[in-house]
Amino acid sequence: MVYAGDPINGRRHTTGYDRWLLMSVGWQQWDEDTADEVLGATGIWLIPRTPTVLAEPRCRIVTTSISRDTRAGVGLAAECQEVLEWAQARIEELTGLAEAKDHFAMWRTALQTGRHRVEHGGAVTSCRENHMVFLGAPGTAKKTFARIIAEVLFGIGTLTRPQITETTAHDIVADDPSRSATRMKTVCDDARGGVLFIDEAHQLAPHTENPSFDGEVIAALQACVADYRGELVVILAGHPTPMQVFLTTHAGLAGRFPHTVAFTSYTPDDIVTLGRRLAGKENLVVEDTAWELLRTEAARLRSIPYGHGTLLDAAGNAHYAHDVIHTSQRARIRRLHKLAPHRRDLEHLLRTNPCVIHVSTTDMKRALTATDPPTTPISRRPTRASAGVLTSPAK
């Protein structure tokens, strides 16, 4: 729509929005007689209540001397702030993990500072400044943190997609070092534009007594981190003890990861808090004495050293809480079935004793027995990446 240059030839029948736009432009750029002539040709005066609406001074196009780029920048800044606040809220919802939360808050502050610098003409922060190492036992929300970080980096424009590509060292390492390097390159290529999360990363170099054997896969990772510095963020995750040995052995790799975040194992109170949250989502009522049983058992598991951590770590921390709650539900169902094997029996039981549907102390005892972690190591078979990074072995 260009009417300002040739208002008479701009006469045409338009929809309500176009008519209003024409009217606003006309009143600002033409003399009153020309504006009335053009507006009359559009038939705008035939629309009911037109005179009343057009008499309202607020019904005008807002003019401004601010450039489009400046207004876009203001909008982008607001959007970035919204993303950061959303991420912080999700982090705060997580149970425990005080040290990891503090590190996230500092990282968020650095991002905000970087955005402010860019908005005032400074250099854009590269992805290199966001590579991270996550140190923590299984079940301590490392993947959850990684997903939130990917969303944040996408939201502020550092990355082009919010997804993370999840894989493990088992999916990458092969008997032949050159094949391991090829697989690493494939994984990094697939993750470009987003976050690559490598769990059990210390297993990328299982032969610490002969580091040269693992040199090719580590070199491939370093090359990808360098080559894709503006397109890829890499997060290496694993248990603290072997990861620290791994990073010490490969000091050149460690220098490319400026952030090291510690994820502490859950306390017995954390396990109960997680259990209560899960039970609430399932609309499951658990007796108070049953929660005390869970707290006591979690404390016992946490007191027993096992492998690189404790038996609670071996049980999976948050995974353990999930397993106990789901197993207690099944124990409750079995108990109810024995008490009332037929539908009418169950209906009568629930009417006469509504509390029978709660998870009882007996149900919790059975669940804790069923989920008691083994005290002997279990060999783990390599699995394909959960996100489908490698659907078939790389050639």
From TrEMBL:
PANTHER family: AAA-TYPE ATPASE FAMILY PROTEIN / ANKYRIN REPEAT FAMILY PROTEIN, AAA-TYPE ATPASE FAMILY PROTEIN _ ANKYRIN REPEAT FAMILY PROTEIN
Domain AAA+ ATPase positions: 128-267
DNA damage keyword on record: no
Official protein name in the record: AAA+ ATPase domain-containing protein
One Gene Ontology MF term: ATP hydrolysis activity
Family that this chain belongs to: Belongs to the CbxX/CfxQ family.
InterPro entries referenced in this protein's UniProt entry, alphabetically: AAA+_ATPase (IPR003593), ATPase_AAA_core (IPR003959), CbxX/CfxQ (IPR000641), CbxX/CfxQ_RuBisCO_ESX (IPR050773), P-loop_NTPase (IPR027417)
UniProtKB keywords: ATP-binding, Nucleotide-binding
Residue ranges, compositional bias (Low complexity): 371-380
UniProt region (Disordered), positions on chain: 368-395
CDD domains, sorted: AAA
